[in-house]
Structures are given as C-alpha cells and as structure tokens.
Amino acid sequence: MFCWLDSTNIFSMKKHNCLILTVFIAMAVTAVAQTQMPNNNFEQWTSTDNGNAIPKYWHSFAHGDCQLKGIYSWGCGPMLKNHSNRVSGHSGYGCEIYATSIAGNLVNGVITTGQMQFATPDNKSAENYNYTDKDNKMGHNAAMKFTGRPDSVYFWCKFDMKKPSNVAIAKFHLHTNTSYKDVAVHTAATAQKGKIANAFCDIKDPNDKKWHRYKFKFTYYDEQNKVVSSSSRTPTYILASFSTNKITKGGSNGDKLIIDDIVMVYNKRLSYLKINGEDIPGFNPDITVYDFYCSDYEDVVVSAEAQSPHASVTIYNPSSANGMEAKIVVVHDDGEKEYTVRFHDNTELQAKK
C-alpha cells in the first residue's frame, strides 16, 4: 500500500532556516512492482503442440477452452490452432496474428494475455470471451500480474489487410483479483466487478505497409463504474488482447497484423513550476535544471504540479556550498523524475554582465 500526497506542493525557503512543508511518505511493500508487461517486445517464444509458435506469457487458440458439444465439437480440432507467427518486428521479433476461414466461417486472428473460451459456435455470442484465469483452472498460466497505473500505452503495428478499410483492435484492462472478462460485445463503460481502468484502441490500416506507433490513454473508474481522473486502487492483473478486426467475423481471410514493443507510459513531467506564484522563466517540462536569480532568499516559495493525477510531487531544499537549490521530485508507479532550481544572488548576474 502506498500513501500518496496531493500532486500540488508548496515549499517555503528561508535564507538561514529551511522549512519543508510537505513530505512524501511511502510505506514499504514486499511485493515486486510489475509496471511493464513481461515480454512486451515479443523476443521470447514457446512452441505448442497444435499450430504455430506463440510469444511467452501470451495465449491464442491452441490454449483455448473449447466447450462445444455434439457435432459442433468437430470444430474444436481446426479451431485450436494458433493464428500467430514469430516474424521480423519493429525491433527484433514481432508477433503476427492472422485471420483464417474454418468451415466457411471467418475467424479473426487473436492473441491475449488471458484464457480464450469457446462456449458456442456463434462467434458473436457473449459466452465466447477472453478472461484472466487467475486460478489457473486451464493450466496455461493465463493471468498476467500487473500493479502499475499507467497514463497511456504505446505500441507499434504493421498491417497487411485485404481491405484497407478494415480496423483492428487492441484492448487493455487493469483489474483487481478477479476472473475479469473481455466480452466480444463491449463499450468503454462495460460494468464489471473489479475494473480499475481500460484502454480500447481502434487501429486503422494506413495502407502503406509501414510500421506505425499508436498511443492511447487509459480511462480510470471507481468502484461504482464511474469515470474518475485517478484511482487509489492498485491493479492485480492486466488483461490485454489484440485482434485483426474489431468486429467478430469481420475483416477478410488472410488479414494480418504485426505487433511489437508495447510500452506502458507513466508521465512524470511537471505541468508547471512557479517561484512566488509566477512561472519560472523558460519553463519546459522536459528541462529539469533551472537557474533563478533574486535579491533576497527570504520568503521564496516554490510550487509545482504533476501532469499525471497518479504522480506525486515533493519539494525540498538541501544545502549547497554554492548557494541554495530546490529539488522537485515527481514520483510515479515506475520511478521518479527530478527537477532542480538553483538560486543565485542578483549580484552574480550583475557580475556576469
């Protein structure tokens, strides 16, 4: 458990008496933080008994739970073959998924961190879905642990679609310790116990056969399923899925989508940095060191705010042999970013002129 301060902090600085007004307190935790998806660059692969290779920690049709009965059970054989390949990626290897036709029915290429379930031959049925198999009932370890609260997700894709109008999809669900479902028919506000955040990513084919980087923001929810700017709840798992088409049985036979380098982004940039209520000259959230000249250190106030609602800011002022420095530290789930303001007497500025 972490105790987070509000992301706005004020530091008052006396010339001979430094006073820290805010303190960031973090309680020690025993669990190891998992803020990026394992094998997010698809460099690790495993073979399967049925079909093609599959990236480690991911799952496809060969690991599917086929519950079809009677004559429909005949479809389990051809269905339980991965529709994925290891191919040349954006960097190193990537994961290619492809659509195919089984008994005259189009089956989208799918890869997921969860368990696939086929309960009915109707591909559009809500009984067919991917889910986090937290209890490992199918024995495939189809539950990816994850404890971060990212602001965005970035990934690279390359298309080979039979129709340029086809739209693929990527879905990322952050959830608590539940067997969370990614149902076939959904909206961004689909009510389901345990939901913390999601990112639904429609991926359009630019029809140029090139790699493109896609960026999508996470939307966070409270326990009543209402959208909130931030969440104090820590996820337990991430359920991620990619499909060659956002519509079940959509697209065309032979559609291909290559995925690579999935990165969870934790924004540790400042939205502002002020001295005595005024923006520090030349402020840029990507610049981390500033020099500030003033005639008197008395009652100087430094204030700052993080861009991310999930980041905290603490401001402190260690002594320095060459004067006074204010340190502004932005802490997010995956680490920290430090800004420095170096204070100088105006006489130093005059001496330089």
Structure, described:
This protein has 353 residues and is mainly β. The protein folds into two domains: 8-29 and 268-352, no CATH class; 45-265, Sandwich (Jelly Rolls), CATH 2.60.120. Helices cover 3% and strands 43% of the residues. The chain has two helices and 30 strands. The protein has helices spanning 76-79, 346-352; strands spanning 8-13, 18-19, 45-46, 54-55, 65-66, 84-88, 93-98, 100-102, 105-107, 110-112, 115-118, 129-131, 144-145, 152-160, 167-175, 181-183, 195-204, 212-217, 219-221, 227-228, 237-243, 256-265, 270-275, 278-279, 289-294, 300-306, 312-316, 319-320, 323-332, 335-345. Strands 10, 13, 15, 17, 19, 20 and 21 form a seven-stranded antiparallel β-sheet that branches. A hairpin with a 2-residue loop joins strand 8 and strand 9 (105-107). The longest helix has 7 residues, at 346-352. It is elongated, with a radius of gyration of 25 Å.
Offer a quick outline of the entry.
This protein has 2 helices and 30 strands. With 353 residues, it is mainly β. Strands 10, 13, 15, 17, 19, 20 and 21 form a 7-stranded antiparallel sheet that branches. A 5-stranded antiparallel sheet has the order 2-1-26-23-24, with no helix packed on it.
Distance from first to last alpha carbon = 52 Å
Give the biggest beta sheet: 7 strands, antiparallel
CATH architecture of the largest domain: Sandwich
Residue fraction in strands: 35-45%
CATH topology label of the largest domain = Jelly Rolls
Rounded to the nearest angstrom, the radius of gyration is 25 Å
Domains (count): 2
Helix content: under 10%
The shape is elongated
CATH class category label of the largest domain: Mainly Beta
Helix vs. strand class:
mainly beta
The chain-level mean pLDDT equals: 82
